[in-house]
Design brief:
The structure is a homodimer of 407-residue chains. Chain A has 407 residues and is an alpha+beta fold. Chain A has two domains: 19-100, SH3 type barrels (Roll), CATH 2.30.30.230; 108-390, Fumarylacetoacetase-like, C-terminal domain (Fumarylacetoacetate hydrolase, domain 2), CATH 3.90.850.10. The first copy, chain A, has nine helices and 26 strands. In chain A, strands 6, 7, 8, 13, 14, 16, 17 and 22 form an eight-stranded mixed beta sheet that branches. A five-stranded antiparallel beta sheet of chain A has the order 4-3-2-1-5. The longest helix of chain A has 16 residues, at 64-79. Chain A starts with 18 loop residues before the first strand and ends in a 17-residue tail after the last strand. Chains A and B meet through strand 7, strand 10 and helix 7 of A and strand 7, strand 10 and helix 7 of B.
Chain lengths: 407, 407
């Protein structure tokens, strides 16, 4: 039992203890652990310089033994009265700190592992044909995204500009995206590197923890560009993650069996343990919940995704980040994107203020939170990933140019 | 005129001066400049610690003013007799040094900008339909690759394993790729970062230089996985680059007008200057030249690629690397991949030793070199990117697994 005075049902109790990077005015960014509505300064309490680097990478690179050891220390510090005085000197009120990008992202990969999401997208984009591509149930489809534009929650999203071409347009036009969207996902953070393929059963030896991820998407740019090499500018302008990385050890009570797979996956993808995760996301638009996507239903688990990602010999680095893919459930109010919630823009959402939305408008704020079962009937919270849409920047306009082109 | 005794037609004269990272036995990796068959140690001659970091990134981040200044210094040091004694103390014979990955790669993007290559691939994969997708002449198609598996020339390529499914197979099978290929490309290295879109005309303010790039590709893995989100495991196991980065300033004499573009690109892609590059690649298989792809014919220039990559607001970091896409010319002996050279495996190449090749066999060595016009009728060489194929690793085998799967 902790001596801390934690808010009831905090979601940030001793069964959680997520890691983040914080600063207070005039101090440099360092590692902290959230407990209740406070942040414990690990540089102060541990005296270990690994927590003073401004990202979690150096600590994550130490591997699962070090992760377990620090977690045990944290629980001892927060439960034994002998440590109370010391710990209290290193606690900051959450309201007093700024939160930063928790990891230095090495490579960023995004998967596509919700069957309901993939089916919805297939029905919307390719009506009349099989909604799932033939490979979908044989492998976790994924692709690399832009690591350099992964940013922490709160970073505003400037409406991206680019080319789009409607089905009836003679030629593409350039301008701000008119179909700016969110994708509600889980993000998995690789801590321990690997030079070798990581079998499904070795998942927890390499993945440090889980955050929330919003893979902002410009559907009109994406639709025009993505054949044949996949999404590029429709995604690369910004990907937002929550500031707290929930350690895998905090999610033991959330582990569930994934849905049955048919056909049976190839042996390298067979399940060594139930790495389905009973995490329920909550998607809010301007403060109003519009969806509650259930991650427990994801067809491919994060353990299978990692096994697939590395089976060809691709190495892992500390700081590699991969997204689950948009989480959508089978119910209309469990869909993880506006593309699905408005069914390709044909069924506008009605908000509490009387307005309607198909895609995001300038000024809109999109927020994703999530909860999971914790130890002893408690719950684990993930904090939030949020962002507000700003108008397109005026750096590039259709009229900019240099007189007559050479071509 | 240099006081150095340079080999005739060296390709590494004072009009080139490419940068790389080298070490000698027992010393740490540092920045060097290749001149003839020697390497000038920049830490020694300049006394600037920026060259002792083991990558070019810190120097590249200083921007084009610093690049021009050092280039002017180098030419002065290598031409004025007063510096001869000092310089000679910091020269190493090329044979005495090890060469390392020259840059810390931030994000890696691969384009698809050779019309001949894209047409060949379209004809091979989708016979009977339009070989170019509808977007191809409107934008430089690209996608993100894996930065963490970019390696320096000489790194062996383990034959990747993965899923493949032939058109007549009932289900995918797992095993070593049977269609391992090369892609002969130019690599462009971003030096100066940017938080804003980079117009075509600002290319040289951000791109530091050019290297050679082999985008090793497993065609069977790629064919099965790439719809709808693009190539992933078919590419992510290894991308090799040459150890020398030729500064953009060395390529002034190689600049040519790109091919005419029809339809005329949107204004943000209109050409501000002729950034076509008259660089001729040479592809050797086990020492025998099998192709000479001409980069001058690329439909989209590297300046247009960079403008496209950033137009949506995607930021640039020092160390960002992007590939031109496979370079293929209009002649059969100008094709930059075995996929094209063997026309999808249907027309095997005959090698000088009497053997034939469709795709790479274990033990094969693939090497790409390149030359461009230099100042005063000379020529610029790029060194080489080479690699030998090793048998698939036995980390993962189809029979590995964990007994009956849960699914």
């Amino acid at each position: 039992m902790t001596w801390l005075d934690l808010p009831p049902d905090t979601g940030f109790g001793l069964d959680n203890l997520p890691y983040g990077i914080f600063s207070t005015p005039g101090t440099s960014a360092r590692t902290g652990v959230r407990v209740g509505d406070a942040v414990l300064d690990l540089t102060g309490i541990s005296g270990d310089d690994v927590h003073a680097t401004g990202t979690l990478n150096a600590f994550m690179a130490r591997g699962p033994g070090a992760w377990a050891e620090l977690r045990a220390d944290l629980i001892r510090w927060l439960t034994e009265d002998a440590h109370r005085g010391t710990v209290e000197r290193h606690l900051h009120r959450l309201d007093d700190v700024s939160l930063h990008l928790p990891i230095e992202v090495a490579d960023y990969v995004d998967f596509y592992s919700s069957e309901q999401h993939a089916e919805n997208v297939g029905r919307i984009f390719r009506p009349g044909s099989d909604p799932l591509p033939p490979n979908w149930k044989h492998l976790p489809i994924g692709y690399h995204g832009r690591a350099g534009t992964v940013a922490v929650s709160g970073t505003p999203v400037h409406r991206p500009q680019g080319q789009r071409k409607g089905p009836d347009d003679a030629a593409p036009v350039f301008g701000p995206s008119t179909r700016l969207d969110i994708e509600a996902e889980l993000g998995f953070v690789v801590g321990a590197p690997s030079a070798r393929p990581v079998p499904v059963g070795a998942f927890a030896e390499h993945v440090f923890g889980v955050c929330l991820l919003n893979d902002w998407s410009a559907r009109d740019l994406q639709a025009w560009e993505y054949v044949p090499l996949g999404p590029f500018l429709g995604k690369s302008f910004l990907t937002s993650i929550s500031p707290w990385v929930v350690p895998l050890a905090a999610l033991e009570a959330a582990r569930v069996s994934p849905p049955p797979r048919d056909p049976r996956p190839l042996p390298y993808l067979s399940d060594d343990g139930p790495w389905g995760l009973d995490i329920t996301l909550d998607v809010r638009l301007n403060g109003q919940t519009v969806s509650r996507p259930p991650a427990a239903g994801l067809y491919w688990t994060a353990a299978q995704q990692l096994a697939h990602l590395t089976v060809n010999g691709a190495t892992l680095r500390t700081g590699d980040l991969y997204g689950s893919g948009t989480v959508s459930g089978s119910e209309p109010d469990q869909r993880g994107s506006l593309l699905e919630l408005s069914w390709g823009g044909t069924e506008p959402l009605r908000l509490a203020d009387g307005s309607t939305r198909t895609f995001l408008e300038d000024g809109d704020e999109a927020t994703i939170t999530a909860t999971a079962p914790g130890a002893d009937g408690g719950r684990i919270c993930f904090g939030e990933v949020t962002g507000t849409v700003l108008a397109a920047r005026q750096d590039v306009s259709p009229s900019r140019g240099s007189g007559p082109g050479r071509s």
